Amino acid sequence: MDCVTSAIEKKMHKCGDRTIENQTWMQFKEQAKKKEVYIFGAGSGLDYFFQYCYDCMPIKGIVDNDCNKQGHKLIWHCTEAWGTSYENIEIQKPDVLTNSINQNVVVLIVSTNYYKEIIEQLSQMGIRNCYVLLMLEANKRKTQLFIEKDTKKEIDNFIKKCLDLDVEENKIVMSIGEYGGHAKCITNHLLNLRNDLDIVWLVYEEDQEAPIGVRLVPEQNWKSYTYELETAKIWLFDITVENYIVKRKGQIYIQTKHWSSITLKKFYLDDKSSCTSPKIEAWIQHNGEMMDYLLSGSKFDEQSCESGFGFKGKAVRVGSARSDILFDKTIRNKIYHYFHIELDANTLLYAPTYRNNDYLNNKGMNIIMDIKLLRETLTYKFGGKWYILIRLHPRTDDKKCEWENFEGVINVSRYPDSEELVAASDIMVTDYSSIMFEAAYVKRPVFLFAPDKKEYIDGERGLLLDYDTLPFPIAESNKALMRCIVEFDAKRYKKAVTKFLEHYEVYEDGHASKRAADFILRVLSTEKEI
């Protein structure tokens, strides 16, 4: 954050006939009584404004240059808007100010980094009646605009207020990040079974395909996040709950994990690349102690969660809700129609995982697969026309890949539901992603293309399973991959996959989400341990 002493030394700028360094709150408030007030900026400066400066003055609108914020409700980008009359106001394009010039507007610029550029932008639009929050606060003789807050004290005080509220017996809070996963499937069944539930999804963005009966709440807004959790009967999480949240008597914490019945890579307490400090380790262990139930899909699932989460509660083997879609025969037509694929064509889904070094260095995925040769090999082995659907990990920037315009290749990275892509495809190729097991549940052919096998296994992430014991053909080069495809034996493959799943007691039959929903409703209806 910029400090005031630094800001005052900046070059002088004028807004109308006033220099911004001489602006005062008294001047601004006098203008605000006569004109319509617009706030320019929906970043941290706006949080500061609502917390320290807002005194119920009427605000006509909020504008921002960031197209990713425009059209979103303010609560999704401003924590302190929570609980105010402005939490649902939409962030608009600056163009709206052009239409308001004749209505006498005053603009408060709350951006701390780009206020000079915004002043120039407003000037070009014919708007000169603007004020800068940074300078208004500087002239209150503060030594720093953003005084370092005692965040823990603030959170603790807010939690105390929430703890005085009743736990709502019909409220279920699900952390899903984005529409999909286990929560999506479980929610659909809950809505079919009960119409009196308050189902809350904690999500990152407002633009979600939520069904009727679901409330979307911004996960990044700590006040809304805290309020919903502290007043909910059930927490259904596929990640961990924030460390400052207090689990109250009578509240139930159900862990679903975001993977299915088997995951290849180590996680949380077993993964030293994510469990990097005693503080993080204590956070994960605290979660493990709070968890009452684990929705499990296999014996392997239960054992790995006991180790990775430090889980000490009760496992309920219902299967993996998100994997139910694999058994739905209608999904193929849906996906083919969405991507304009002929119904008599065949599809191979290529879903490689990300590489941590590439992610940290903001590099795209380097696809070294010979796409042209792959399509020719598939036609030679299985016949028919083939399309290659490429789905990169969400942490990988697919804009930096050049393969999208190759013949017969479709970029499906932005499609919201990976399970639907698996359900629709005839064959899967991946490397170290646990999505490999999804296809295996329905005995679809899976090939592992791992040209950096040694480097990844030795240096990237530890594995829970011996890679070479997986029931899928493994190739470390394009030539080896084509040979695996040509030599593929369906009967032998299905036998190996069946043996593997039976060994780890995998329980998947397409009805997991219904079993999960039934279990949740039983938990809601009883105070006793199930």
Topology:
Layout: H1 4-8, E1 14-15, E2 18-19, H2 25-34, E3 36-40, H3 44-53, E4 61-63, E5 91-92, H4 95-98, E6 105-109, H5 115-124, E7 130-132, H6 133-138, H7 151-163, E8 168-177, H8 181-193, E9 198-203, E10 214-218, H9 222-230, E11 232-237, E12 252-255, H10 278-290, E13 293-296, H11 299-308, E14 314-317, H12 331-338, E15 346-350, H13 356-360, H14 371-382, E16 386-390, E17 409-411, H15 418-424, E18 427-430, H16 435-441, E19 446-449, H17 453-459, E20 474-475, H18 478-486, H19 490-503, H20 512-524
Parallel strand pairs: 3-4, 3-6, 4-5, 6-7, 8-9, 8-11, 9-10, 11-12, 12-13, 13-14, 15-16, 15-18, 16-17, 18-19, 19-20
Antiparallel strand pairs: 1-2
Helix pairs in contact: 7-9, 8-20, 12-15, 14-18
Give an account of the 3D structure.
The chain has about 525 residues and is of the alpha/beta class. The protein has helices at about 5-10, 25-35, 45-55, 95-100, 115-125, 135-140, 150-165, 180-195, 220-230, 280-290, 300-310, 330-340, 355-360, 370-380, 420-425, 435-440, 455-460, 480-485, 490-505, 510-525; strands spanning about 15, 20, 35-40, 60-65, 90, 105-110, 130, 170-175, 200-205, 215-220, 230-235, 250-255, 295, 315, 345-350, 385-390, 410, 425-430, 445-450, 475. Strands 10-9-8-11-12-13-14 form a seven-stranded parallel beta sheet, with helices on both faces. It has a six-stranded parallel beta sheet with strand order 17-16-15-18-19-20, with helices on both faces. Helix 14 (about 370-380) runs parallel beside helix 18. The longest helix has 14 residues, at about 490-505.
